[in-house]
Specification:
The complex is a heterodimer of chains A (385) and B (90). Chain A is α/β, with parallel strands linked by helices and 385 residues long. Helix content of chain A is 39%, strand content 17%. Chain A folds into 2 domains: 19-133, Rossmann fold (3-Layer(aba) Sandwich); 143-369. The chains are: A alpha/beta (385), B mainly beta (90).
Chain lengths: 385, 90
């Protein structure tokens, strides 16, 4: 596959969009971020419910996710809006981003003298950032600069035989051309650890896979108790699933058949190419935030029941598992993978690829046309204090 | 002939029924000719593309999804009544 035209960043990454984002460092700053975006609608808000009353593992996860989103390849520049007394302070977040050479500004609501003054000042900063972003232009780069994130949500009986295998074809094409693909949702890897381990490039990677899947299974049992069998066992699989391996293979087939080069933590950027697994949960909106924060410029999202969600700073391409779904939610669906039944998996995989290349070069995905931005949902392992 | 089954990986020994298949129906498998369903195959379930002796792997997505717990005829329905799980040491 040929390359794409993207925005080359000072840290060596390449964006497929050129957003100026307004990112609250804490939930208490969402209102001021919203007022800034009301005044400057071209800016993209990254609302979330975190930034305070956390420590340890969850603080690490949230800080990494927010700072990685603020310096995401699809972001030209960021304004961090803080309150002043929170745990993840605006200057900490801003410092983390500027340390990588990316453009970022920050304000604190308490230091500016309240919401109105902070919003006025923030809007002025964002106008300047947008004016500078408008001067940036695209340049041709190779697929080796691309990270594709994979997700599924609202699956049905066809997801595992149409949409997911077709996306697997795309994944193999991206990896063959030197790109990176991130497969996640570890809940959906339960039962297939031995298969994934066999595909690992080294014993160390295999060990990390075994550890990740074992923890996913334990977590699922701990959270769901007796209901865990709904996820882990094939007991309720009247649709034709005869084993947990069969069910999970229908999910992980999205990643194609390439060797697995590494396992990364939630929102951690992979340092190498190829097929990468991310240790993130089956909850699609949380794992999608992790995958985008890791640097995925585009997300390929398969759905059977019809999930319209997007992501504020990355195009999310929707692959419908049936022609019926594609027809009934055509405003939300980008690709009809129901065509696999007539045309085969390979041909539909190549159609996903063609559509993705157009989106990389600037064509809006349906979720972008619909402004399916929502709020960030971040993976959290424990309670707040 | 109407497309009745989908083979996901070329190494698979089962295919997915795209509609309910009645025993005795001729089923065209692209690249592998026509086989006859020997059981009723429910929609979304698996049909054996070849004989699977007891203890042999059932392969879908190019991977072992279980082992035949009894002899499976070509064209037979494959599900939990004749397929046992993969035992994984974890």
């Amino acid at each position: 596959m040929s390359g794409f035209n993207g925005f080359e960043r000072s840290d060596g990454t390449v964006g497929v969009r050129n957003h100026v984002v307004v990112i609250p460092s804490v939930a208490c700053a969402n209102g001021v971020a919203a007022e800034i975006v009301r005044q400057v609608p071209q800016a993209v808000p990254l609302y979330h419910g975190h930034g305070c009353s956390r420590a340890g593992r969850d603080l690490e996860l949230h800080f990494r996710t927010l700072s990685n989103l603020a310096r995401h390849p699809n972001v030209s520049a960021a304004l961090v809006v803080g309150l002043g007394c929170e745990v993840i302070k605006a200057d900490l977040l801003s410092g983390e981003v500027s340390g990588t050479g990316r453009r970022v500004e920050h304000i604190d609501i308490q230091a500016e003298g309240g919401s109105r003054r902070a919003a006025e000042k923030g809007a002025g900063i964002v106008r300047n950032l947008l004016a500078d972003a408008a001067k940036e232009s695209r340049a041709a780069v190779g697929i080796d600069r691309l990270i594709v994130g994979l997700e599924c949500g609202g699956s049905d009986a066809f997801s595992g035989i149409t949409a997911n295998p077709a996306v697997g074809v795309l994944s193999d094409l991206v990896v063959a051309d030197g790109g990176t693909v991130i497969l996640t949702e570890n809940t959906e890897m339960i039962g297939t650890s031995h298969i994934l381990e066999r595909r690992a490039v080294s014993p160390e990677v295999a060990e990390r896979i075994r550890d990740m899947v074992a923890r996913a299974e334990k977590r699922t049992r701990d959270i769901l108790g007796p209901l865990a069998s709904m996820v882990i066992a094939p007991g309720n699989m009247d649709g034709g699933m005869s084993s947990i391996q069969e069910k999970s293979l229908g999910c992980i087939t999205k990643g194609g058949s390439s060797p697995i080069t590494r396992v990364v933590d939630y929102a951690e950027s992979p340092t190498g190419k190829g097929l990468v697994l991310m240790d993130a949960p089956g909850y699609d909106v949380e794992s999608m935030a992790g995958v985008v924060a890791a640097g995925a410029q585009v997300v390929i999202f398969t759905t059977g029941r019809g999930n319209p969600i997007g992501f504020p700073i990355a195009p999310v391409i929707k692959v419908a598992s049936t022609s019926k779904l594609f027809a009934s939610m055509e405003d939300d669906m980008d690709v009809d993978a129901g065509k696999v039944l007539e045309r085969g998996i390979d041909e539909v995989g190549r159609e996903v690829q063609r559509l993705m290349m157009g989106v990389l070069n600037g064509e809006p995905a349906k979720a972008e046309k619909n402004r399916q931005d929502g709020i960030l949902c971040l993976y959290t392992t424990g309670p707040s204090f | 002939m109407e497309r009745l089954v989908l083979v996901i990986n070329e190494n698979d020994n089962v295919a997915v029924a795209l509609r309910e298949i009645v025993a005795g129906t001729g089923v065209e498998v692209p690249g592998r000719g026509v086989l006859k369903a020997v059981d009723d195959i429910p929609y979304g379930h698996k049909i054996a593309l070849e004989e699977i002796p007891e203890g042999h792997p059932v392969v879908k997505y190019g991977e072992t999804i279980g082992f035949a717990s009894s002899h499976v005829q070509e064209g037979g329905w494959v599900h939990t009544h004749n397929m046992g799980p993969v035992e994984v040491n974890s």
